[in-house]
Every structure is written in C-alpha cells, then in structure tokens.
Design goal:
heterodimer, A: 407 residues, alpha+beta, Immunoglobulin-like, di-copper center containing domain from catechol oxidase, 2 domains, four-stranded antiparallel beta sheet, B: 297 residues, mainly alpha, 20 helices, elongated
Chain lengths: 407, 297
C-alpha cells in the first residue's frame, strides 16, 4: 500500500511548514495493494527528532488536538482531511526536524518531514538558526544589488506618510515584514524573521557573529565569518549604529511589554506605541536606525519591527482584537489619508503612484506563500488584522510568534 | 469588597491602565520634562516617555525644541530632549508642520559647545541630506580648525549622501590619515566609488596593511569588481603565509556569492579548504566548514 500526504492541501515540499494555527492536510491511498475492503484505518503521528519541533493533530476543524489520530481512508483514492499544527512552545530549530508519519498497525507507510516554523526571540536562537538567518539576509542584500534594495526603497522620506503617524502604522509594517520574510524563505525555507525583545538585555544579538558590535566611531564590526560584513545600502558599505545602552546587560529605557499591553484595549489607545516603545527603540541608538528615512539601512530595523508586530499580536490576543467588525480592533477614521483605512490597499504593493501616494512603487506585489493564500498580491489594511485566520481561516498570513498563542 | 467582585476587578483594572498611561506618557510626564524645578534625573526619565505628547500639538513641540536650544539647560536634559524629538519624528504627521523649526534647531545645536550634542545633531541632519551639515562636515575635513566633529565621524556622516567632494576629501585622508580610524572610515566612504577598485585591490594584497582595512577592502572590492575579488579571494585562501581572518573573510565571500559549479571543479581549492576545517583559528575552521557545506548542498 502507498499513501500520499498533503500538507496545506499540497504535495509540494515547499508547503511543509506549520505554525500554531491548524493547517489543512489530506491523506489518500495511492496504491491499495494488500488492502481489503473499501477503506483502511491509518494512524497519523508526529515523530520528533531530538530537540526538534512537535506536531499535534486533529481530524476536524474543532476539537482537541492529539499526538496521534486514526482515520479511515478510502482505498479508492479519495482524500480524507485532517489538521496539523505545531505544539505551542515546541517550535522546530531546523527544517525536517519533525515528521508526520502514517502507519498501518505497526508498519510505517510514509514519513513526511515538516518544520514548525515560528518567529523566535533573536537572543535565544541556536547558532545554526542564527547563521542560516544572517546568510539568507546577506544573500537578500547581495552587497546592495539584491532584492533587499526594494525594501530599502519602500521606507524612505517620501513614503513615510504611507506607514507612519496614522492608524495604518502597524498593518503596513506587518505587511512589510511579511513580504521580506517570504523573500528570505525563498532563499532558505527554514528561516523565519526573529524579533529583538527591546525590553530585555540582548547579549547574543549584539555580537560580531550576529548583528555586530559598534567600534569607537559607531561603525558596526562583524566577524570574518559573518555575511553581514558585505552589507551595503544606498551604495555604501556597512552599518552605522552606536547603542546608548549597555546591550549585554540592560535594555533601552522604554515601555516594557506589560506597560505596552496596558496602553488600553482599543486600537486607538494601543497605537500610541508608535512613539514609545517603537520610536524610543529606534532612538536608543545613534545611527541610521534612529531616523525614519534611513532606518531600514540597518538590518536590525527588521528585528525591532518584528517585536513591534509581536506586541501587536499579543495585544490582539489579550483583548480579542482580530475581528474587523469589532470597532476597537482598529482606529477607523473617515478622514485618514489613503492607506490608513481598513478597506484601503497599501502602497507600494498596490502599485499606485502619484497624487496622495509616493511617485514610485518599488518592489511590485506582495510575494506569494506556498502555504497560505492571504493576503494576496495587493494587501489591504484589513488583511493584516486576522493574521492567524481566527475569524476566517482564509485570512491566515502564515506566521506565528513563539509566545503568541492560537486558541 | 468591591474589588473582589467581577465589576470591581474590572474597575480596578481600568484605573490601573489609566494610571499606567498617565505615568508613561501624556500630560504629567510632559509637565515634568519641561519643569526646571525638577531634578535632572526626573526630567530625563520623563522625556523618555513623552514622544507621542511631543507630537500632539505645536506648543508641546516648541517647548521641547526650546529645551534643546537652551544652553542653560543641563546637557543631559538637552540630549534627552533631542532623543524624544527623534522618537516623535517617527510619527511624521506631527512633524510636517514644524520640520523647519526642528531643522533650524538642529543646525543651531550642531555648533553647540557640547561635542556629543553636536555629533547627534549633525547625525540627524546628515541623514536628512542637509546641505548645511554636509558643508560643515567637509569644511572640517579640509580645515581641522573648523571641525565640529573628529574626521572619522565627519566621513561616516558624509556617507549618508556621498558626492564628489566627499570622495575627494576621503582620498586625501587615505593618503594622509590623521588616525587609523579615519583611514578606515575614508575607505568605507570610497566603497561606493567605482574608480576606487584598484586602490582596494592594492590594500587587500598588502600584508602590511591593518587587517581591518584589508577585510574592509575585500568587502568593498567584492561589490565593485566581483570577478576580480573571486580570483583574489581564491589566491588568498591558497596563500599559506596570509592571515587566518583575511582567509576567513575571503572564504565567506566565496561561500556567499561565489560560483559553486566552478569551485566544485577546483580540486586545489577544495583540498586546501578541507585542511582548514581542522587547522587554524576558529573563524577559519568555521568558514572552511561553511564553504564545504555549500559545495555539498
């Protein structure tokens, strides 16, 4: 007997990535040799390598997850749906460190390697995770000639009104990070964007092997094995960044996570975080990251914003703010500039230029994912809210944070 | 008793959230930040928590700009005021109407007596490609008596918007560096100059040059003339007399950006790198392993 497993309803190896959100999977018998009767009972389990991610399963869209399920699969080739997710708190550290296995009684029929791919605290990454990330980031930059140039050009002085100082601040940056992360994953599928928890000491981030250490002039130094030594933006080599705080022992002086989540239960009150801690984190350094127009020249920008996005995700969970129909989920203002209302498409992915939008739209549409369909090539502000597909499963954006649960 | 009921707990939580908001932003923090009767520590701490309040009204913005401009204010408070303004500048809308005042204030304090304040103001202006700041930075390089910041800082800040005059000044520093850091910054600035490739090649191959400048030259040359750098990187890796960190940088360049198919055919290189997996510095061993892993992938 042979069996086919589909992850995200796909047989493609590119789709074999799970988060905390249950992913639609299918199983079917492709060769019924040796079976008798119209169906066969098959056991589906997750098999974890030492230190690897863990998978949980269930047969329907609701109900409890289990480590093992049994499904009756027709022998005529029809598919049977089931759902797989990463076990919260047990993400993978490398691609294929957990497998979904199918067995018939004691006989293993098929084993499909998957990854519980989750955005993690950059300070806690393993050496291998760190090295894969900087390698992919270095390739995305490709000495200033790579795709990263689009991301640099998306966040410049002329485009700041699209992304800052208005309700679209958090949705725009969520989209920005997602686009970048998908491009990193096109280079190395095992990579996800880590976050810099700027309210905690980060001794493992500001090292020569990761995001570098500042010399006496505030120019960042990297080790000889770090691909970021070739980092180049706007034609210029290197990163300028001098911290104003002792990176190894203390965080910058800004609102911590608890204080940020206590800003209030409406989006209007929560989005004050654009000033503190977001702006405060930016200006905790002297260098390109402390100015809105130059900030993405520093790759640390994306880890900082990943934490900003994570705080939004945690706030959304705390106050149940995923639903567009709940007014407190967003700060909808009739007079907001284009790009800051729920139904607005966002620049530059919408390709709209001129008038109230910037004169050019670098980068083209949003990169697609092999795992999910949202948000589509031209994301709207509203597409960024239900990132886990809690309100509508088709809205899932395909990323999760290590400490932001899906319920 | 009320606190033990559901409604009581909710009320308590609401009050706590309100207190937190008041403590970390808004009116009271702003009042402390601009109140000269308060201690320096209190004002600095308050300024860290007022970025959104700064942007809420022109009066608030003007008050913080006033603190920044006031030479009688303690320097710690002025630096904190600048930091608060910078954080607020991320909420662009609030700054649109006052960007002229902000820029004028920055230009003013770029010539302040305090070197840290000067440097930070020039840094913000240089990021904004401000002509006044660029002129002052170049003047300082050409005439050190007029320098507002050390030459290495001036070169670094000019790199935000490089143009011909900056290249000229950087070349002069490379030829006659006032200190090693200034030379490194001049080289970094010239990394965008396509005509500088021969200079970087020379420095990369000069074993008497500092290792930092050789590594920097490798990075610069790799972007300016990738084919040349691939050849030189291979030569350096095979050169038994060269330093491990330079070899490691060369191997990292080959691993990240090199032609895998060509390396797979290059048995001499492969054998040599294979030996490096267990010999030499940790960096060299790691870069060798990464190179070979890529070939095997």
């Amino acid at each position: 007997m042979n069996v086919e497993l589909q992850i995200h309803d796909s047989t493609s190896p590119d789709a074999r990535f799970l988060g905390w959100v249950p992913s639609p999977c299918r199983i079917r018998v492709t060769d019924p040799s040796g079976t008798t009767g119209p169906s066969v009972n098959l056991q589906i389990t997750g098999n974890t390598a030492a230190g690897g991610g863990q998978v949980v399963l269930r047969t329907g869209t609701t109900g409890a997850f289990a480590t093992k399920i049994t499904v009756a699969v027709p022998t005529n080739g029809a598919t049977v749906p089931f759902f797989a997710a990463g076990r919260f708190g047990q993400p993978s550290s490398s691609n294929g460190d957990v497998s979904i296995e199918v067995s018939d009684r004691a006989n293993l029929i098929i084993s499909v390697p998957v990854m519980v791919r989750i955005r993690k605290n950059a300070n806690l990454l393993s050496t291998a995770e760190r090295d894969r990330f900087v390698s992919a980031f270095g390739k995305l930059n490709d000495q200033g000639k790579g795709r990263f140039r689009d991301f640099r050009d998306m966040h410049v002085a002329v485009s700041l009104s699209q992304a800052h100082g208005a309700p679209g601040f958090l949705p725009w940056h969520r989209s920005y990070l997602l686009d970048l992360e998908r491009d990193l994953q096109a280079i190395d599928q095992s990579v996800s964007l880590p976050y810099w928890r700027f309210d905690q000491p980060a001794p493992n981030i500001f090292t020569a092997d990761f995001f570098g250490t500042a010399d006496q002039n505030g120019t960042v130094q990297f080790s000889a094995t770090n691909p970021l030594q070739f980092w180049r933006t706007d034609g210029q080599l290197g990163v300028i960044r001098r911290p104003k705080f002792p990176t190894s022992t203390a965080p910058p002086n800004l609102l911590n996570e608890a204080q940020t989540l206590a800003l209030g239960g409406t989006f209007k009150s929560f989005r004050q975080m654009e000033g503190n801690p977001h702006g405060s984190a930016h200006v905790s350094f002297v260098g390109s990251i402390d100015n809105p127009a130059t900030a993405p020249k520093d790759p640390l920008f994306f880890l900082l914003h990943c934490n900003v996005d994570r705080l939004w995700a945690k706030w959304q969970r705390k106050f149940a703010r995923f639903d567009l129909a709940v007014p407190a989920s967003f700060d909808e203002i009739a007079t907001s500039r284009p790009g800051h209302k729920l139904s607005d498409t966002m620049w530059p992915w919408n390709g709209v230029t001129g008038h109230t939008r910037p004169p050019t739209a670098p980068g083209g549409p949003m990169s697609a994912s092999p795992c999910v369909t949202a948000p589509g090539p031209q994301p709207r502000v509203e597409d960024m809210l239900d990132y886990q597909g809690e309100i509508a499963s088709a809205s899932e954006l395909g990323f999760d944070y290590d400490d932001a649960l899906f319920v | 008793m009320a606190g033990k009921t559901r409604a009581g707990r909710k009320l308590k939580m609401t009050r706590k959230a309100k207190r937190t908001r008041e403590a970390v932003g808004g009116g009271r923090a702003f009042w402390i930040a601009t109140n000269k009767q308060k201690t320096i520590q209190e004002r600095v701490s308050a300024l860290a928590h007022v970025p959104m309040a700064v942007g809420e009204g022109d009066n608030n913005l003007q008050a913080v700009l006033g603190v920044l401009r006031d030479v009688k204010e303690p320097i710690e408070v002025r630096l904190a005021a600048l930091q608060s303004l910078q954080a607020a500048s991320f909420s662009v809308v609030a700054f649109e109407s006052s960007s002229g005042d902000y820029r004028a204030t920055l230009r003013n304090i770029a010539q302040d007596e305090n070197p840290e304040l000067r440097e930070r103001a020039l840094s913000v202006l240089a990021q904004q490609k401000d002509g006044f700041a660029q002129k002052k930075l170049l003047e300082g390089l050409q005439n050190p008596q007029k320098a507002l910041v050390p030459p290495q800082k001036a070169l670094q800040l000019l790199s935000y918007d490089v143009h011909a005059d900056a290249y000229k000044a950087a070349r002069a520093i490379v030829n006659s560096p006032p200190n090693p850091v200034a030379k490194s910054e001049a080289l970094r600035l010239l990394s965008a100059d396509a005509t500088a490739a021969p200079m970087f090649e020379k420095i990369l191959l000069d074993k008497s040059e500092s290792r930092e400048n050789r590594q920097l030259s490798a990075s610069a040359l790799h972007a300016l003339d990738p084919e040349k750098m691939q050849t030189l990187a291979r030569d350096i890796v095979l050169d038994a007399s060269d330093y491990d960190d330079i070899k490691a940088t060369s191997l990292t360049a080959l691993t990240q950006f090199g032609d895998n198919a060509a390396f797979a055919r290059d048995q001499t290189l492969r054998k040599s790198v294979d030996l490096m997996k267990t010999r030499g510095s940790d960096e060299l061993q790691l870069s060798a392993s990464q190179f070979l892993s890529k070939l095997e992938a």
